[in-house]
Amino acid sequence: MSHLSAGVDLGGTKIQAAIIDGKHAVRGKARVATPTAGGPDAIVEAIVSAVREAADAADVEVAHLGGIGIGAPGAVDAERGVLAQAPNLAGWDAPYPLAQHVEAACGCKVRLGNDVTMAVLGERELGAGSQLQSFAGIWWGTGVGGGIVLDRELWHGRGAAGEVGHMVVRLGGLAEPNGLIGTLEAYAGRRNMEARARAAVAGGRSTLLFDLMAAKGKSQLSSSVWQQALESGDGLAVELIDDAVEALAAAAANLVNVLDLEAIIVGGGLGSRLGQPLADRIARATQPHLFQPALPPRFIVAELGDLGGAIGASLLITEHHGDR
Amino acid sequence: MSHLSAGVDLGGTKIQAAIIDGKHAVRGKARVATPTAGGPDAIVEAIVSAVREAADAADVEVAHLGGIGIGAPGAVDAERGVLAQAPNLAGWDAPYPLAQHVEAACGCKVRLGNDVTMAVLGERELGAGSQLQSFAGIWWGTGVGGGIVLDRELWHGRGAAGEVGHMVVRLGGLAEPNGLIGTLEAYAGRRNMEARARAAVAGGRSTLLFDLMAAKGKSQLSSSVWQQALESGDGLAVELIDDAVEALAAAAANLVNVLDLEAIIVGGGLGSRLGQPLADRIARATQPHLFQPALPPRFIVAELGDLGGAIGASLLITEHHGDR
What we know:
CATH architecture of the largest domain in chain A: 2-Layer Sandwich
Number of helices of chain A: 10
CATH superfamily of the largest domain in chain A: ATPase, nucleotide binding domain
Largest interface: A-B, 43 and 43 residues
Number of strands of chain A: 12
Order of helices and strands of chain A: EEEHEEEHEHEEEHHHHHEHEH
Strand order of the largest sheet of chain A: 3-2-1-4-7
CATH class of the largest domain in chain A: Alpha Beta
Helix content of chain A: 40-55%
Distance between the termini of chain A: 24 Å
Oligomer: homodimer
Radius of gyration of chain A: 19 Å
């Protein structure tokens, strides 16, 4: 048994692995692309190879690790180590015992959690939430996820709490592909923002967004594409980000009016990329919706950045539980 | 010291007092109109007279009661027994030591709490929430208040949690008089529904609402007026209640998507009056907004009815704290 453990952030585009020591410092890291063919078996192989590469960088044998924590994008059965649903992973069509397969390949114990939950727990323990009692994490990326921490405990409800992205903020508004109407994610989810941008272009609107995407060799509007378009003052990008900020502000106000939280931590690909200036804009847009405007929450960007998900996932091994 | 205590529900229109025994049974009750002139002093007199009348009915001396708990409609400093703000009480223009004055007149200890909070606690202990771990109360009346119970504890946040009525459900929608836009209360608060009805009539719309109000000798559209108008199929009443149900459903879905609660308890004047059929309608309207439609919350009408606020307030005396 080593005092080193691994955390893996399994995302729709990339797999980030990190080796973490007993003081939660990063001793090695590696990133590989998420396979888009080959289903769960290919993804297991990619995870194992990312962990091996990170372990090499940290000069440790994988089999000597204290364990591997994996944050996965979907519905997790933590006890059985099964990833049941993962719409963002190609070919993940049925529940699959992910922990068991990685365990067999690596020779050390593997624990599974939800990716956003792991990132929120990472911020609670080691990042922007380390001094906070109660906060909400709003993870602004491809979709909009989150987590609610009350008196330092992650609130689970009956097991499915924290779906901040699916709060209604505009009855009768835009629909998500899943059919939910007027939700935060319909306005602020990067996938839905991209669909709106494509529809606008199809309707004759001009924008730099897709030129920037092509120049970066991307096939999707990544967070860095949005950032550069905003910096260039692109009209369509500004408009769509304005809509997203308005929706994020309404959702943040709802959380604070109901739960009276100390802070909102803004994370996720877009949240981290656009950073504190955007968090400050969301804070200003939230203010008029607060029932107690004299007692606003703080708005803080997630501190652990790109490695936050992996660091958070490593807590599944180093803490007795990761959460309660 | 008696095993009997009193609970008082101080409302904008009426003051309800009840004498409660050690098994939380009602042994006497009285209701007086809330004075609309004379400010806090007149309201203290009215509270004392309601408690006296209820005590007479229960055949007990007021000075022999274990104490009097008061639920007050506004910002309460429970420790100091001060009602700081109460926009629905005429002449309550500054913080006033309500507990101290009632105590002096009655000769027994007095404890103060927020009226909706007391009603939600009453339901948790003795009513619709007695078998639930985690639920939200949505109190649908003149305004829309509420309370969040998590693992049997009322969640306070930094002291101001539970303002479910001020959640945004329609960005860019109707305004409350306080300037908040598109909130649940803007659509479902009885005061705001009445303002919309009056505006519709001023615009030439016909409705039975104000005839029913006059026939009942009321000066406002009370819950019973709304009920009768609905039963008569009045077009404007149906339309405004439809809007209210839609907003209540969005707010309920937001609470469940974020907190994954077992149940929503619907209380308040309109909630209790319109009863389970309306709660069932809200449940059906909530369903399409749920991220996990297979795991809906239950929708239950508050069970303690008109006396719920007073019974809940009596818990300030009989329980050590009333909440955590």
